[in-house]
Amino acid sequence: MFGQDTTLASNEYNKMIKQNPELNEGFTGFNTPEFKAQWEQSYNSSNSEEELGMLASLPVKEFSKALFTSDQPQPIVRFGAFDDAQESFYDDYTLNQFKQEFPNDPPLGSMYQGTWHGASRIPKGKHEGRYLKKVGHPTLHLALLSDLHYHDPPKIPEGVAVKDISEDVIDGRPNPHRIYYTEENGQRTLYSFPRNKQIDPRFKPIEPEYLNMLLEQAYFLPELQGYIMDNEIPNRRIPGKVGNTYKIYADSGKDKYLTIGIGHLLDPRKPDSITRTRRMLQTINPLLNTQAIMKGEQGLTQAEVHQLFQMDIREKTETTHRVFPNLHTYPDYIQVALIDATYWGMMGHSPTTRKLIKLGRLEEARDEWLRNKTYKRGESRFRFEKFDQALKRWIEEKARFRAKED
Predict the structure, then answer these.
(1) In this predicted model, what pLDDT tens digit does every residue of 201-245 receive, in sequence order?
(2) Is the pTM of this model over 0.85?
(3) Cβ-based neighbour number of residue 381 at 10 Å
(4) Residues 6+ apart with CB under 8 A from 192
(5) Domain residues of the chain, as ranges?
(6) d(CA 134, CA 53)
(7) What's the rounded Cα separation, in Å, for the pair 187 and 149?
(8) From CA 62, how far away is CA 20, in angstroms rounded?
């Protein structure tokens, strides 16, 4: 069986080269024994004459031509996380040859912290914008987030202190793509285009509900709920219990803000907290009255406390994704630490730390984080130091990967 597949792959490779002579013109490394062997290995892995793994269901010759044809205009493209194994179509040899032939093109991908990251969608040609991951792919949400939170590359001024640089400058100009789909053989194929691009009517905008379903995995971090609970209620006993309900209580900070459930702010000194809580409680139980809760006249059941907690986690996760456009590319433990710091509220008061993290200057971020006045007063020291240890771990892992790649 394997020998037969190898012959089939070899025949298809030769046919592709013959039918697409432009792939051979100037692309000095394309038609070599090394590349041919790698191409055949990738082809064999698909077990199909028409597909190459999960790469957009395109015939091999069309897919290859879309990637390696140089006579197409260069669109605005975004490449996102593509965590498939190294033996995917985007191997190091292919990448190097592509860079030599098209030095001004966006990279097809690279190794980053031991994981291969490649193009999330086809960059040009008649299949431009087509996602390389089908609906159901376990990391499709990473490609979608890359496009939805895309920012143009920033231009960081030299010789200016980080605290004096606007966070908007560090993030780059927001340029989110819009997600579309087509129906093909009863299945949806997803596409992504810049928001200012004229779109053919055959592409239909994806419904918000459907998009949210595809993104659901981005909001599921197994350790997140326990991590926040350990910080908010270390003994796992929800404060404010009176009988069978949980009532308003003052938090442990110096300002003694009124809080309900698992660290949910509800204080008249923070009017936004009242509006936000009223909106959330309407979903949980329309009979709950925000003013009565603040006065201690009404409490929440345990089930309502946990519903409110889940809603808080979701909102704070979405906020963290907006504040850190590349959050989904960070290790899970860093995502958890950043979402917790947002839930807690301290990340919102730490603009220089945020900017240093985004710039990858993690040692400086650690120093800045522990210079916080709240930490120096001795408040929430355990929580500050947990975040600091997460940054330390990230620094050490980056160093190990760099040493391995060198």
Answers:
(1) 999 999 999 998 888 878 888 899 999 999 999 888 999 999 999
(2) no
(3) 13
(4) 78, 120, 121, 129, 131, 144, 147, 177, 178, 179, 180
(5) 2-219
(6) 11
(7) 26
(8) 9
